[in-house]
Amino acid sequence: MTTETDDGPGDTRAADGEALGPELFAERDGVRLCYQALGDPAWPTVLLVGGLGASMDWWPADLCVALSEGGRRVVRYDHRDTGRSTTGVAGEPAYTARDLLEDPLVILDDLDVDRAHLVGLSMGGGIAQEMAVEHPDRVASLTVMSTSPALDRRDDTALPGPAPELSGLWDGSATGPGEAAATEASVRADRLLTGGGHFDEARTRAIARRAVGRSAVPAAAANHAVVASGSPVRGALSEIRVPTLVVHGDRDPLFPGHGARLAAEIPGARLLVLHRTGHQVPPPQTWDRLLPALLAHTV
């Protein structure tokens, strides 16, 4: 494990002003994954798994602090090709979706954590579902947000598709050269994904600027959208045995209604619907419901 001091390039003061401590690095097979851990190691560990193209900056520091104040050790990390994790050439991912699935285990091993409470958003929710089937011994509970079934379902009825205005959102065509263009593209995408729900433009722009500034090649984040699948995960939602909480916004334009279908397929899963919320990290206006639910679920 590598630690960088708070007064150097490793100082990670998030966009909302909360310091979450130094950036740490877990390394395996030539790949470095950047992460942060907040809270007492003796507390239950909550591992936050971000969405497609998202560095850990998109898990707001004040949300991490609130979870930690509830007695949780909170860990967030940069996916490959984001933030300060290993980054390659834009448009040429040097890994597969299977590698993205295994990366959380690298973080947990570096922290000497046997089992963690997984909280996955969007693509991260898919990764968390797959981990619950592939590595059930490493998963204490599952929370999936703004996501869709990533495994086989009993119900083969087609799920509703995304809103037309999201077409081409992740193909990189809306991003011009330079950090300013990348920041504005992120803000535009986040605005669209809220589906007309809660949206704080100043907060979003600050996080986007921070995320872009920490990234060696901001355009490489789009590699997640074109990555090869790698060896498939064999399993079904009905095989998930850990306690599961499904969190979904009532205005999600990418996966409309998918949360209810997902909760119905996972044995014993509970569904929490957040009002005026789209496809996004649940905004502060929802935390009065979200935080108690998360803390009760991750004991």
Automatic annotation (TrEMBL):
Q: Name one Pfam family in it.
A: Abhydrolase_1
Where does the record place the region Disordered? 1-21, 149-180
What InterPro entries does its record include?
AB_hydrolase, AB_hydrolase_1, AB_hydrolase_fold
Q: Which residues form the AB hydrolase-1 domain?
A: 44-279
- This protein is called Pimeloyl-ACP methyl ester carboxylesterase
What organism is the protein native to? Isoptericola halotolerans
